[in-house]
Each structure stands twice: as structure tokens, then as C-alpha cells.
Amino acid sequence: MVKKEKYTVSGSxxxxxxxxxxxxxxxxTVRLIHDDRTLIEIPLSVGAPVAFVGILAxxxxxxIGAAAALVTECTIxxxxxxxxxxxxx
Length: 89
Hints:
This protein has 89 residues and is an alpha+beta fold. The chain has helices at residues 14-24, 49-69, and strands at 2-10, 27-34, 37-43, 73-81. It has one domain (2-81): Dna Ligase, domain 1.
């Protein structure tokens, strides 16, 4: 099951919030939105936080930082993958 969550943050808080969300795990996609327009979209695979932070972090976070510098307030939308919890009775 995919669940969407939105967070409104100031431009200076964007990088910190995105890093926090990635470390939580189970993130499929991260979008940075300003005035109902997507500035940047980052697809992640489930279980990729370690690889993302270790390998791809610098260029992607630099792009996010550049986009965030252009806005005073924006919305971060994340798609989280949640496992279905079934009763085993």
C-alpha cells in the first residue's frame, strides 16, 4: 500500500527534512513542490536509503538545495510504502 504525506517547510529546512525522511526508510518517491508545481522529483526504491545516502547523496542533495534556495516556502511530498498487516489467526 502506498501512502502520501506532505510537509510544508521553509526553504532553509528542506534538506534537513528530506534527509530525515530518507533515513526513516520505506520511501518510494520524494517531490519538492512550490506553488503547485513540482520543482524536483527523486525516485527511490524501497530499502535504498543506505545506497542513496552513501552514493547518490551529494549531487541529488545539491540539486535539492539549489531548488530550495529559490523559494521561501515549499511542500515536500513523499510516497511511503506500507506493508499490509494481515491477521495470522
